[in-house]
Design goal:
Length: about 425
Amino acid sequence: MLTLSSVKTLRSLRHRNFRLLMTGALVSSSGDFMQNVAQSWLVWHLSQSPVAIGVIAVFDTLPRLLVGAVGGAIADRFDRRRVLVITQSLAMLQAFAYWLLVEFEGIELWHIALLAFFLGVVNTINQTARQSLVNSLVPKEELLNVIGLQSSVFNFSKIMGPSAGGLIIAYVGIAGCFLINALSFVYLIFNLYQMELPPREARRHEHGIFADIRERFYYLRANRRMLYIVGISYVMALFGAPYNRFVPMFATNVLHVGATGFGMLMSAPGIGAMMASLTLASVDKLRVGTRSICFCVLGFALSLTLFAFSHSFILSIGFLAMVGFCQVGERALTNAVIQTGAPPELLGRVLSLFFMDRGLWSLGGLIIGSSASAIGINWSFAICGAVCTAAATALLLVSSRQRSEALRHEAAPTVELVAVEKK
């Protein structure tokens, strides 16, 4: 039975096009996370090296930095649904190639690196196009609800995918994860073709694609609040987000659980993230500030540090759930600021600059992997938590000072007016 609260939370699903996109994304994203689990498990058991995990992370997320800007320009220049169909078809081919290599025991680390890099390029363009398309599927006043629902679907997939992936690895084998992921793309592509969208308005582009890319930097430089918010997401990407690459080390060396336990650990952030997403989806009005984003970063840093020194499987799951809650809260709130504040003709490019933070996951993964080899993974996580804490605290102080200055400027004319009236 649907309650009033649940109806309010799911209100954006009454829009058919958005509903088609979300149901397709649920199936496809679950397959993606299943493949992520299989890839992490495969790399660890092929190499037994945290450095190798970090190196693969470089190839997985480096495309965010290399083609992120171009992806934003593509989303603003071309039909976004057509871009999504192409990127999802390419991702399906990548998953089939992965399955064949693993099934016939020809997989090597350099294959994984190459396939991860290819998928990174595809997903960089895909994510920006999908987020830009969503903006046109629902009224602007429902964007926070849409962002929350999108995130909840994504993170529900983050629960389903790893859990299923751990079971499939344990009872079927790693190759099964890649095959199921490849088949999952068919449903999303079918749903994209089912959408009924108005003809895309043709826009004349007088300048080249690199001029389009420069335009977004000019816009962000002029908007300091948005610049600072995007900046702290970059800190999170470098020193926080790569944590999930190293969960296999905790599963085997610290907590001593097998593939099923590993799948549960990988699912825990998804549980917390889904709770954060549903909370945001239930909010009626959009009230996003720098402080709320910074508090999410502080919560993330504390939870990650507690997980690093936990030797309890149950507590570790709880800490990872809090990590997921705070991480998704930070990203969803930042996304909401951009979706509602950026001009429509610049939306894809500004979003791509935000999504480029994932390109730093590669460098962050390499730094954490190298640090783990030298001082241990737990102390490496603690240092990362300290860096995130310092960045959030600094931004809170800057924001507080700017707010005080703005209030003084607003009050100054009033004081002068009172003085004039007395005269």
